[in-house]
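hiii, so i know i said id send this last week but things got crazy w the move. better late than never?? heres the sequnce for the chain we talked about at the cafe, plus the structure i predicted for it. fair warning i was half asleep when i ran it
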Amino acid sequence: MNLPPVLQQFWATMGMTDLKDLPPAQRAEILAARLERSERALREAETALEKRMKELFKANQDLGLREKELAQKLEIESSLLLGALSTVLMASIYGERERGFSVSDSAATILGLPEGEEATLESLMASLHALDRERMMREGMLFFRKMEPGVAHRFGHRIVRQDTGETRWLDWSIRRESHSETRPGYLLATVRDVTEERRNERQVRALQLRAERRLAELSRLQSELSTAKGRVEGALADRNRFISEMAHAIRTPLAALSGALELLRRDVGGQAGDDLAVARAASEQLGEVASRLIEEAAQDEADLPALAQRVTSIEKPLAGALMPERPKVLVAEDTESNRYVMERLLAELGCDVTCVQNGAAAVEAVRRVGFDLVLMDVMMPIMNGEQATQTIRGLAGPASRTPIIGVTAHSLQSERERLLSAGMTACLAKPVRREALETAIQTALISSRDVGLDAARFDHDLFRRAFLDLPKAYRERMRQAAKTDISNYAADVLTAVDTDDEEALSMASHSLIGVSLNVGAIGIVEELAHYREIRPSGDASIEVFRKAVASCLLAIDDLYTALVEGAQ
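okay and structure toks below
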């Protein structure tokens, strides 16, 4: 270790006993070194002391803040505690055998003592309600004699306040400790005024009991309503079945009668022709009466007006809508007289007719032989017309698109809508007139001539009413507006699908459905609803909807020519 020369000289002279024995120059150097070392140590100590003082100052600041926060928190909690004690009206009692009992000041408030008067055990006992005094005295004796020490026991009783004379309920928690070597036995009790709590509990219980009774009553009424609903539904089903059977039983022979009279009209003249006209008029009146009776019997089944097939109001064949040469028509009808009449009427209209007696035979005939049109009776054995229509629509190839005209004994809008939903092109109500039959056939053939039936499905009755309810001057404008609106709203739907904008799709769909239903374009509505139903699965294709829109736009002009211009 290399030391400065001064220190080397110092250590060399360590054997000397005193600095005065050193030369003056050496003594000065040694003293200067000691002074420098002391000053450096002093500066380091001052720096450390200053740092420590800063740390202590910051710690004092933090401690002051914490003390302030704790004081505020303690003040808040004390206020809450005092407020709670004031609210619950709680008092305490402490007692020892030699010292007696001491009662907290809050007991005076509970007992309603005059201001300044202290509460004592005697004043507590004097405030006991007459109905509870004997019981509490007895339970007090048992408490000291038999009840286990070290355990809190609960008691409840009434008092009479001295200031107001009001009856109040008190709740006690009393615990006594036996004496030990370190301290004598003592008693500790807390008492609370629980009058409001008891009142609230009674009110809650009363409400619970009332609610339970109400629920029981509602359950009973619901059970009775369910039973009554079952009876009503059963009665409605029986009534509807009776109406359906009666409609079929009445209108089926009426259809044969009307058709036969229609066929005889061309072959009978003179006096016999006049007699036949009377018979035809009577037949028509009978048919109208039967229709009115059946419709009024089922009037509460739907709010919509009865069908009363509107096509029968056309008094002449439609102009500009000639039928194709010798269309092949399949007639599915279980009643022989109606088959005969329908076959004769269709033959007069220039059709090649094939007849079957039930829906199953109709499905098989359509599967094996191609037909231009099917006239399908609704009520038939083995398979009814609605089931047969659904089965045909499920066939493969062109057979599934064969136009089907339903012939029903009912004339209700709900019946017609159900048959159209099953896949029928149109519906006729019995008895069927020649003009109505010709109109329905022409319309159905036009609908299937240029576009597929499934893609361009229309409710023809809605289509006709949409235009015929307007003045003639506005009908053409309505047709153009309908085509424009359908095109625009359909484009909005397709754009929303491409951009995956669910909100825009909902708005465009709402608008398109509205304008489509105005003209009876149910094909558009059904395909759009089907697409939106399967859209969340991720496997939906918009192409079927696109084709339905295009097909319906193409069919509007043909339907307008057949159903609107021909009715002018």
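btw The beta strands are 90-96, 100-103, 153-160, 167-177, 186-193, 328-332, 352-356, 373-377, 404-408, 426-429. thought thatd interest u
miss u guys!!
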